[in-house]
C-alpha cells in the first residue's frame, strides 16, 4: 500500500472540509431516512461541536446552492435535551442556534420539532424542524 497517497484524505464520496470528511446528499429525505442514507455510504449525519470547524463548514456550504440540510442532532429521546447522534450533548444558543427573531429563538415548537436542521438562509445556524420534513443531507464519514 502506498502510504503517501491516502493518509489524511477522505474515502469517496466524502471530501475533506476543515478537519472532517463530509458528504452532501442532494436528494431530500426525512431525518431518519437521511441518517440511513449516510449509513449506506459509510457515515452518519454530520456532527459539529467546534466553532472553528463550524465556520469552515459554513464556508463550504456557501459554495453549494442549497439552503436547508439535516444534520445529526435531535431531542426525540427526551424533549428539550438536544443530543448529537454520537450521544454527546449539544451546545445551545450562540454561535450555533438561530436567534434572528427575538421572540422565536430556536429551538422552538417544543414537542413538535425534534430534528436538527442547518439553515443557510439563517446564517448557517441551527433550527429545530419536523423530522418528517424532506431536506438535503450532510453526512460525516465514520472514523477509520
Ligand atoms: Ca423538540
Ligand atoms: Ca424550529
TrEMBL record:
Residues 17-140 form the C-type lectin domain. SUPFAM superfamilies: C-type lectin-like. PROSITE patterns: C_TYPE_LECTIN_2. InterPro entries: C-type_lectin-like, C-type_lectin-like/link_sf, C-type_lectin/snaclec_domain, CTDL_fold. Pfam families: Lectin_C. This is CD209 antigen-like protein 2. The gene is LOC108672420.
